[in-house]
């Protein structure tokens, strides 16, 4: 039997730093009546997500001027 000390493992790994929160939209997928988030892509040009049940994909482009709305319905 091996002696395992979890604290040794934690000391050898880097502690993750707090990253800036990822931007997201709340999407209600009407296809399966579920909610999930769509996250901004790396270029910052669109939000991308998919229904957690049927995997229907949604893309929401970021437009000039934008909107203050954070929740949308996907049909």
Can you walk through the features of this model?
The protein is 9% helix and 36% strand. It has one helix at residues 6-12, and strands at 24-29, 34-40, 46-50, 57-61, 71-74. A 5-stranded mixed beta sheet has the order 4-3-2-1-5, with no helix packed on it. A hairpin with a 4-residue loop joins β1 and β2.
What's the order of the H and E elements?
HEEEEE
Assign the structural class, choosing from mainly alpha, mainly beta, alpha/beta, alpha+beta, or little secondary structure: mainly beta
Report the β-strand fraction as a percent range: 35-45%
Strand order of the largest sheet: 4-3-2-1-5
In total, how many beta strands?
Answer: 5
Number of domains: 1
Task: Give start-end ranges of low-pLDDT stretches.
Answer: none
Radius of gyration: 19 Å
Main beta-sheet strand count, sense and barrel state: 5 strands, mixed
Question: Which overall shape is indicated by the principal axes computed on the Cα atoms?
Answer: extended
C-alpha termini separation:
56 Å
pLDDT averaged over residues: 87
Helical amount: under 10%
Count of DSSP-assigned helices: 1
């Amino acid at each position: 039997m091996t002696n395992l000390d979890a604290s040794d493992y934690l000391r050898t790994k880097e502690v993750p730093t707090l990253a800036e929160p990822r931007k997201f939209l709340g999407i209600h997928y009407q296809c399966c009546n579920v909610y999930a988030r769509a996250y901004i892509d790396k270029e910052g040009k669109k939000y991308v997500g998919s229904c957690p049940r049927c995997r229907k994909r949604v893309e929401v482009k970021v437009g000039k001027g934008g909107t203050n709305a954070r929740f949308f319905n996907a049909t």
